[in-house]
Amino acid sequence: MKQFLLIREVFPLKAKVVLLMIPLSILLLVGCTQQQGPTTQQPKPTQTSESNATPPDSVSTASIVGDEASFEKAISSNGTWLIALTKDLTFDKELVLEGEYKNGKKDENGQDIIQRKIGLYEQDASRNITARYTLTIPKLTINSPNASIQHGTFKGDLYVSSSNFQLVDTKVEGNVYFTTEEAQSTFKADADSTITGKQELVK
User: Fold this and answer.
1) Which residues 6+ apart lie within 8 Å of 60 measured at CB?
2) Can you give the pLDDT at residue 195?
């Protein structure tokens, strides 16, 4: 009889303990879930910051062109600062190099460098020129500031309207006309460049 009463006393006690354990277990489960929450959400701020990050400046990229359509797009106001040929290209219509572009670098004052370049050559990893190309256009108008044509041959007439146009190691089989006095006074051609035709101011 005493054993029976002891069992009856112990059983309710165990039941109470079990009943108390249930809500405690729930609280612990909720607490653990809340603690784990930030861990699972941690990558989200990174994704948000990436989506809000400023995209790379598209004008600091280069266009490697091997056909006429790609060249026309690259020299447009929606093109790239550097246009590099991989073969000779020939056009039977007038074209315009237009738009102001940054080359992705800074000057000594921390300002963006404005530059536009048509490269008529290929080079290796050591920057040795491995091939030179000829670009033939009856008339090419230069409207981009700080533009240059480098290391190849241009066949046709150049009409320069912008300042600081340069020829670098380039042969021009044609004339170079300047549409403004500033374009003429700021024009430069290095010792390796030649112009077979005239250089004069036209208005």
Assistant:
1) 81, 102, 103, 104
2) 99
